[in-house]
Write a structure and sequence with these properties.
Helix content: 55-70%
Order of helices and strands: HHHHHHH
Oligomer: single chain
Number of strands: 0
Largest sheet: none
Amino acid sequence: MNGEMRDYSREELLELSASRYLSGGFVDRGGKPLVELQTTYATAAATQFLDAELSPQELAFVYEALKQVLPMHEGAPSKRIQGAIAEAMEIVRAMVKQPNNVRLKQWLGECAASVKTEADLEAFLDHFMAVLRQYTVIVASASR
């Protein structure tokens, strides 16, 4: 992934998992978040969520719960994000009274595995928001 813009097929987006696109981490050599986290990689995640029939409400609820519980977790960024994701998922599971979407759990786990630093943590949260924005638009467009 060298940052060049190109068109991806639906199949390529479905195959572009977080573990693949985050294999080099969330930030570039200069410590800046990868531009693709806001574009191509957000589109890949949103495409995968559509394929997995993720409720846009579940995605939004998990994002909001994560933002609320993250400050309550202590330790290294990797430990904090993993604990906060687990707590947020449990809150949402109880709230919607059904199991969490499997694809969402997988994506969050893959993202959390790449969080090593505070910069990674911030880049992940920004990436999550980008995915949420794109997914909301995709679902709204698909339902027309």
